[in-house]
């Protein structure tokens, strides 16, 4: 396994701030800020917002860490199998509900209609259904 390379900024230097305000300390602070600015020109560093912290721009190689095996994605995302060919809503619907499902719905619906047919005097009031009618009803609901 290769070591992963991560760009990181390494903390190099931070000066402590004293509570004493003497003339000698101020001159040292001025000299150190001049030294820092000169160091920035000669090395690959960033100066922090506090104007005292130096951060390295060098690349840090993280070789001691290891990516856990359960975090590695081995498959590409997206639909698989027959769903890849479903380019329309109707094709996707037919994958979930094939014609055999609708034929079974029609069969059981017609059995129920036959039980209720005795309650009606005209045959057209309790006519058998077909796949087209079931699709129409589900289309209205959906």
What does this structure look like?
- This protein is an alpha+beta fold and 142 residues long.
- It folds into two domains: 61 residues, no CATH class; 57 residues.
- 40% of the residues lie in helices and 12% in strands.
- The protein has four helices and five strands; from the N terminus they run E-E-H-E-E-E-H-H-H.
- The chain has a three-stranded antiparallel β-sheet with strand order 2-4-3, with helices on one face.
- The longest helix has 20 residues.
- The N terminus is likely disordered.
Going across the biggest sheet, name each strand in turn. 2-4-3
Gross geometry: rod-shaped
Estimate the mean pLDDT confidence: 75
Question: How far apart are the first and last residues' alpha carbons, in Å?
Answer: 52 Å
Tally of domains: 2
Provide the gyration radius in Å: 39 Å
SS field, number of helical segments: 4
Q: Could you tell me the number of beta strands?
A: 5
- Uncertain spans: 1-26
Oligomerization: single chain
Summary keywords:
rod-shaped; 5 strands; 2 domains; 12% strand; 142 residues; disordered N terminus; alpha+beta; two-stranded antiparallel sheet
